Amino acid sequence: MSIRKFAGSFISAVVSIVMILSLATPALAQGVIIKGEPDGQNKVTVLDEHFYSGALEPSFTSENVSVATDSFGMHFTGAYHYGSALVLCAYKPESYSRFTFSIDMLQSNDGFIYCGFGGADEKTTVSGYDFNLSIARGVVAMYEMGGMDSWKSLGNHALSDALVAGKTTDFAVTLEKVSGNDFRVTFEILEEGKPIFTTDFGTTVRMSHPNGHFCMWGGMNEVFNIRDFKVYDSPDNVAFSDNFENSSLTYGDEPAGDSFWHINEARFTRSEVFIARSAGPEFKKAGDVITSAMPLVSESRVSRPYELSFKTHIKELSENAVYGLYLGAESAGDLSTATIIGVSAYDDRSAAVNIIKNGSPADAGDNLIPNSALNIDDTAVGFDITINGDNTLDVVIGEIRFGFSGVRYDGYWGICNYSLDGASAADARLDEVKLIQNTYTDCAEPDLSNDFGGIKLTPDGFEEYYISDRTYYMGPGVSLRPKGAFTPEPSLYFENAGSYSSFGPKQPYTDFILQFDLRMVSEGKNSQWFGVNFGKESYASIPDLYSSIYFEYYAWGTDPCTQMSTNLCSFEDGSKAQILDGYHFYKDQETKYNFMFVAKNRTVYVYFKEESEDISQLGICRAVIPDVNTAGFVSVFGVTGLSFDIFNYKLTNIAPEATGDSAIALRESFGSETISDKLLTEGTTQLQDGAMHLSKGSLSTKAENRYYIANFTLLGAGSDLTVSFADNKTLTLSEDLRTVTVNDGGKTAEFDVSEYGLSEYGQMNLQMILQYDGLSLSAKGIYEPGDKFATPIVEYTFEQPVEKGVLKWTSDDAAIDDVQVYSLDDTYKAEAVSYEQDPNDTDFWQEKAERAAAAPVEVEETRSLPTLFIVMYSVIGAVILALLGVIIAMSVKKRGNKK
Amino acid sequence: MKRIIAAFLASLLVVCTFGCDGGQNSDSPITERKAPLEYGLNAHIYEQRAMDPSSTMDYVVEMTGLLGVTCYRLSTPLDSMFTVGENDTPIFKEGFKQIVHQIIEKMTAVGVTTFAAVSDSSIYPTGYIVTSSGVVPDPAVEKDMYSRWIKLTAKAWGMIAEEFPEIDYIEPINEPDIAGANIFTKQGHQWGLDDGYAYSMPDKAHMIADVLYYIRKEVKEVAPDMQVTTPGFAGRGEGEEVLDLLYEAIESGAHPFLEEYSDTDPDHYFDCINFHAYLGSTTTEDYLEHCDNFYKACERHNDAGKPALLTEWGFTDHDNEAQEIMNGENMTALLEMFDEKMPYFEAVFLYMLTDYYGYSVDTSEDNFGLFTARGDPEKPSCPKPVAISFYKYIHKTEDVSPLYKYCPELMPN
Fold first, then answer.
1. Tens of pLDDT along A613-632?
2. A288 — phi, psi (to 5°)?
3. Tens of pLDDT along B264-279?
4. Does A895 touch chain B (CB under 8 A)?
5. Which of A661, A816, B15, B154 is 20 to 30 A from A449 via CA?
6. d(CA A72, CA A50)
7. Superfamily covering domain B33-396
8. Contacts of A839 in chain B (CB under 8 A)
9. How is domain A448-653 classified at the CATH fold level?
10. B188: nearest CA in chain A?
11. Are the beta carbons of B130 and A877 separated by less than 8 Å?
12. Measured at the alpha carbon of residue A348, what is the angle toward residues A347 and A354, in degrees to the nearest 5?
């Protein structure tokens, strides 16, 4: 429905009214209000180029810029393939082998780098190695490997600051025979060749292949370089060394031959693990330019569509050349149509940050940066450019910030040496370029709810519980409890959960409320957990590969408790694990717990309570996970043999694209003559032009909600608009849209919101979130990006947690539209979706056939010739038979005549 | 008048006779062989990741030449042949590709003239992660991914057809009709487990129709004479009716599913039918009936005359000596039967050159070899009675001494 429709009649009224004094915003209780980072819903690194491959392509094109070569290493791009590892072929360990190497950590996702020992040959997959040493950011551990899934820990030690992004760490791993096939493995971190950390794990390992291969592999998307690899066969003698300058690497299906290294399965491509040989493209001459293979496109649905950064060594600048970024070119490398933002020489102390538009300097000389901040002829300097949707740019060079406006960014972009006089040029080398795109993913998928009690009749006429496998994915080990006396309450049963045991919809969601209840079946033990995955690329993917929050049975040297942890994301304070205070989900097999996860604007809010606790406890935000991709598949999962039941599953789509009422959400767009049966009107109201007009009237929900997200569009107001909820609490938006008044059961607080310019919107989207004791109001123009909701214009904390009540909009003169109310409590129950009701079980093959039959399209017929023959012969045959019949008839007639 | 009537009747007869022979799709079953039956072989080659290190390419080529067969069924598993780059682009794995070239070159040198290429695995669109390499995206819930998977698969086969023009038959799918098969399963399936994630056979038939349609289209663009076969149906699960299900899917008008039109001509989906048949514990008469019934699906669906392949047939002896002897006798009977009573087969590919070694499935699967395993330390590459019968039949000779090259001490006096 159009949300412009009511503009005319109200805009004039909106502009004229009263301004009320503001009060200071009260402090907000920690974690109560759901909001988000001001980013798009899906942050994707679309380019992260370090030029290690020694070539510009395929990331960039260039006519004449060459790539300098001065650094070497074995480069892991973060790709991970189950079972595959980099095997050292050129040297096999003896009774004493000390491996030393440096790791340049380029990106760390808190994953692991492994060293494996005892591989039978270079083709042996990881699971065939005897032992591995696992190096993570905070811990180093030794494992005996019985296949990939059953490692036995032989000990671990805490580490600090290994594998930190941007840092290089030197390691040594020594394999030393103790007796027979027993070896001691010593792990060291070195600094200038001297150990600063050492552990031998207090044990020895027994090798089945004492002279077996050594291998390395990375887990969890770690991006790193291995450099300066050496093997000592005695403490002082280097038996093998590889600085990767003359190294060789073969891939799984190639014979290893004399290769130094081999990837033991044909799963890694040459672009995933390779020998890196580059330092970056060099810009020396006027007009040197490289262009990204990926032009930028304008995106109005997020505030900051792109974040671009590059690191560069500047050796010399010129007064008559601008070295830097170009944007918005109509064709690759066409600087005459581009905007160029870069640096030029200015004087002895400073450089100028210039902007060139369509070939002409603009604002030149106004922006100066000390030469020292550019590290000229020294180390690399970073350029960080945030491209905003309103065509403004925030540019940070070194640590100095500049702003530019009116920059068209859609089009080709790259790095250039732009000469103002046709000859002058800077001398610089580009080290790395990174481009992050903040994208917006439409999500109109329906709400889902299922109490797992839907019924289907078997062919024999018996009832059994049913769930549509076209709607939901149930991984191995996940099933419905059987209907019968032993199942007093239907549930989804995770039995002895394994790697792929997960449950969730087969369609992706972006922003949502996920609710379910959970009760343990097994007792729980160390290394067992359940959790929720976000932003999966495939509904069936294993949990480890994507962001998740999980609840782990934890008894490592403590009394059993529950640890709340994150994978590939972090809590608000940067931590990744917290022992829960007051909740232990594994404490027994009787207690049921209610869980709720709200994913909104790339932030996940976590709520839970014991079922017997008051519902208000579900309003307490237990954790916030910021800056996490939630666009993708969402699933509940369990691991490592854990067994538990899930009840009352609800998934509410809270993305703006969600439409239509559902059993668990109220959505009304006033597009028909009647309104949702979840709503009531009182006083004088009118449905007109697809909107609800309140003229001394009100619109209210029938259900009493306690906590919720309420969205609505205000098309115009000729009077104050009051939204009331429980306990005589109200929020009033003044007629002139400059003041918001919150009434806390008698006590009032007024907020001056004039700075947000609501009156200029004309029509606006409003979002009100009420949870526990917190209230927030956000507003944006109807064409502004949704992430603007992330910054509330009003936040208020009530003296007591809010009680249940209806939500009511009242005005003497206002028009509202697109009302959505999403419950953050237990207002709605999950449905029992039975077979007869399931809308997904249509025969889609038949539907396609019917569609095709209704709209036939001619296709090439290879059988046309035979078919033609058959038709032709049939016609000829019919003619012949007819003639024959005539002749026979005439003959008979003649004979008859003769008679 | 009688003359006139006779003339009309004669012309009618001529027209009808001519008309019936004019199209390939007459209702008449094949009653006579159009060309001599060709014999082929299946084998595991170590360079293609077989488990027996002794079963090298050179050994397999040598034995193929020795046996005198003219056909070879190449293993071209898609996940070994390709990686998938950005934008669903299949990229040949150079090493594996070169191995296939070498096999073709070496096989051709020992007299092999006909190649069938088979895959028993899938590749997937960029970013699509599966629980098992036999998973197919669900067209009911992931139509876009299903569409991308089909196009990727078809493109890969097109690249194989272009890269290896020596191939005569493309067998894109291996035995999807076995109950609990690893191929054509839903997400959640784990390789080797009959875990309830299989699509129903009618659904599989629909999906097979789709993928065959696009594969054939891609293949014909680069190699018009190359034949695309139906999957090698095992005839288990849905039995011989599996081919009916495929025809019914095509006739339903639902395909190609990705297009708005429908195409109900089976010629646009496959050029010949293909199945796998093992004698097992049945009689040779039952075997003949089984194959005939299979083939009659073509007649039932107005597609009689379609050429047929048997890309797998053979005998397991369960490592049992009495069974070995019986298999040797049955081998001759089957070979005669193929020649004389199954004129619809263009080529039959024996499964398998050697027993398994270094890897065990079960006593049935492990013991299909004409020979014991090359790597078997006690009886390396020793001919079993089936090998002797096969060799005698092909070469029309009683001298089987060449078969004992690797185990001369075991040659009977």
1. 999 999 999 999 998 999 99
2. -60, 130
3. 999 999 999 999 999 9
4. no
5. A816
6. 12
7. Glycosidases (3.20.20.80)
8. none
9. Jelly Rolls (2.60.120)
10. A475
11. no
12. 35
